[in-house]
Amino acid sequence: MSDRPGISPLFPERPTVVVAMGADEAEAALPGDLRAELETLATLTPGVLTGDLTAPEAREALAHAGILLTGWGCPRLTEDVLRGAPRLRAVVHAAGSVKGLVSGAVWERGILVSSAADANAGPVADYALAVIALAAKGALATAAAYGKGWPAFRGRQGADGRTVGVIGASRIGRRVLAGLRASDAGYRILLHDPYVTGVDAERLGAEPVDLVSLCRRSEIVTVHAPETPETRRLLDAGRLALLPDGATVVNTARGALVDTDALTRECASGRLSAILDVTDPEPLPAGHPLLRMSQVLVTPHIAGAQGSEVRRLGAYAVGEVGRLVRGEGLWGLVRRGMLDRSA
């Protein structure tokens, strides 16, 4: 720590912050009050870089940047981009995953990277818990039958005691586990995560199981694992076939974790239901069968921060800038090795 109060050894002088993201995203993530707070911490370059970061106007701004505050819509930070940013010491991402943003050149330069993924986890977990409750109540099937008459009391489904299988104790998965534990429904909770010990799973309130057991026993399966070569099509035709009749697949993680064709066949048969905020491909082509099935709900990747919620990501990022200039540790620090096991 520097002997000058409030001055970081990384930034012995007041750093310059450059914002690079989509124009709409910048307006939502960094409203006037947050931009004003940024200006108390650093010299904020006017405007937002919204396009090619190797264009002349972008090069001019990046030449002075000590901190690059990024978000959705920011191009990948390649070696060519970084050549124009010789003073860059930190990238603060006002969004979730940095996999598509950060190239090897960022790590090789020793640039610090922070992500607001923790701030984005709350809305995703809230969405997942809401649709799990809908699935537990059989809401999609009941809504589809409503047009044929008021459903008989005897035929209605309740949530109490349902078995929910959680795939992935990620930052979102752990929030979902906490929400399931807190519910009065008395869910039986199963967890599959190869990186979580049995003892830790039990501390999270879940029974640790292998993926085959989870599929065989779960009435609702909710996916919270990262997309990696190992997790691609984790729920393939064989594993989907293990799910009991009437089960629901919930996916708010990445579409590629579920075999879309296999899920489509299972749902078309009427055996399974699905609530999908992410798909593979994304978006689904117009007229795709999943978009026409009454027991399937597909939403356009809205579980993460939307509208007024996006301000949370900006506030988190501004907080990270403050920690940088004060020489404090980053809450959302991302290390290169973490990307193999994170979204």
UniProtKB/TrEMBL annotation:
<dbReference type="InterPro" id="IPR036291">
    <property type="entry name" value="NAD(P)-bd_dom_sf"/>
</dbReference>
<dbReference type="GO" id="GO:0051287">
    <property type="term" value="F:NAD binding"/>
</dbReference>
<keyword id="KW-0520">NAD</keyword>
<dbReference type="InterPro" id="IPR050223">
    <property type="entry name" value="D-isomer_2-hydroxyacid_DH"/>
</dbReference>
<dbReference type="GO" id="GO:0030267">
    <property type="term" value="F:glyoxylate reductase (NADPH) activity"/>
</dbReference>
<dbReference type="Pfam" id="PF02826">
    <property type="entry name" value="2-Hacid_dh_C"/>
</dbReference>
<feature type="domain" description="D-isomer specific 2-hydroxyacid dehydrogenase NAD-binding">
    <location>
        <begin position="137"/>
        <end position="303"/>
    </location>
</feature>
<dbReference type="InterPro" id="IPR006140">
    <property type="entry name" value="D-isomer_DH_NAD-bd"/>
</dbReference>
<dbReference type="GO" id="GO:0005829">
    <property type="term" value="C:cytosol"/>
</dbReference>
<keyword id="KW-0560">Oxidoreductase</keyword>
<dbReference type="GO" id="GO:0016618">
    <property type="term" value="F:hydroxypyruvate reductase [NAD(P)H] activity"/>
</dbReference>
<protein>
    <submittedName>
        <fullName>2-hydroxyacid dehydrogenase</fullName>
    </submittedName>
</protein>
